[in-house]
Amino acid sequence: MSSAQQFRAGQARGQGAEKANQVIDSAKDTAQLAKDRACDATRSTHESAQQGAEKTTGFLQQTGEQVMNMAQGAVDTMKNTLGVGDNNTTTTTTTQCKK
Fold this sequence. Notes:
This protein is mainly alpha-helical. It has one helix spanning 3-82.
């Protein structure tokens, strides 16, 4: 192999190595970008889920209170219907504390 051929072969090898390094660096950059986006998406999803949980908790608490009030209303209605409710009491007892 002549000197010129050896030179061109070395030059081609160097250019190939440089191109390979560029491809590797580009792949690393792309992987880092994908990782960053995945982290951002995870963080956003977590925050959204947390906000949703807080809204759900408030909704469930409000619904529970409404159900309890409705149940109490039904109990009061039944007591009044049967004549044992507070609304049908004709006598009032007052208790005073002695000093």
